[in-house]
Write a structure and sequence with these properties.
By secondary structure, the chain is of the alpha/beta class. It has six helices and eleven strands. The chain folds into two domains: 108 residues, RNA polymerase, Rpb5, N-terminal domain (Dna-directed Rna Polymerases I, Ii, And Iii 27 Kd Polypeptide, Chain: A, domain 1, 3-Layer(aba) Sandwich), CATH 3.40.1340; 63 residues, RPB5-like RNA polymerase subunit (Eukaryotic RPB6 RNA polymerase subunit). The longest helix is centred in the N-terminal third of the chain and has 16 residues.
């Protein structure tokens, strides 16, 4: 399954996983759909596994969504679809589940928003640093929405404290909210 589009978008998936600090990234290009496996280093035991599944189909439907949720061997699934997603499929993916599921259109990764000349550097504080920051400064800081493109790219979650290093040397903080 190495269509020209897949060859174009595959490096973006890998770059996104590296930006999230995932380790042991393995690409399964021969699979249909294309899959990428990795390990989330935020888990202290390095046992939390992540799987990206890319669907190069015209419409992402409920049946396809149920297929994705059937892989019980992973803790976190990133579903990327090429065209569109039905509202029912979106609802199935967003249902409460023991598996963390993210979904996004591949168009959101066609342009790498982290490599723009004006884009600042984003760093997530560790849990310990976050707790110290909130204890010292409180939570009265500007917010970053969880559905912000940068928050989705780096997989920022609710209550993360983000340090933003701007090109002019300014350092600002954001707290991720829903």
């Amino acid at each position: 399954m190495t269509t020209p589009y897949v060859r174009k978008i595959l490096p973006r998936f890998i770059r996104m996983f590296k930006a999230r600090n995932y380790t042991n990234i393995v690409v399964h290009e021969s699979d249909d759909p294309l899959t990428i496996d990795a390990v989330d280093p935020r888990d202290p035991d390095y046992k939390k596994t992540v799987k990206l599944i890319f669907f190069d189909i015209p419409k992402f439907t409920v049946r396809t969504a149920e297929e994705c949720l059937s892989c019980n061997d992973k803790d976190h699934i990133v579903v990327v679809y090429k065209e569109g997603i039905t509202c029912f499929a979106k609802r199935v993916l967003e249902m409460p589940n023991k598996i963390v599921v993210e979904h996004m259109p591949s168009k959101s990764l066609e342009i790498d928003i982290t490599h723009h000349v004006l884009q600042p550097k984003f760093v997530r504080l560790s849990l310990k640093e976050r707790d110290e920051f909130i204890k010292k400064w409180g939570v009265k800081f500007p917010k970053m929405k969880i559905n912000d493109p940068i928050a989705k790219y780096f997989n920022f979650v609710q209550d993360d404290v983000i340090v933003i290093h701007r090109k002019n040397g300014d350092i600002i903080y954001r707290i991720v909210t829903s």
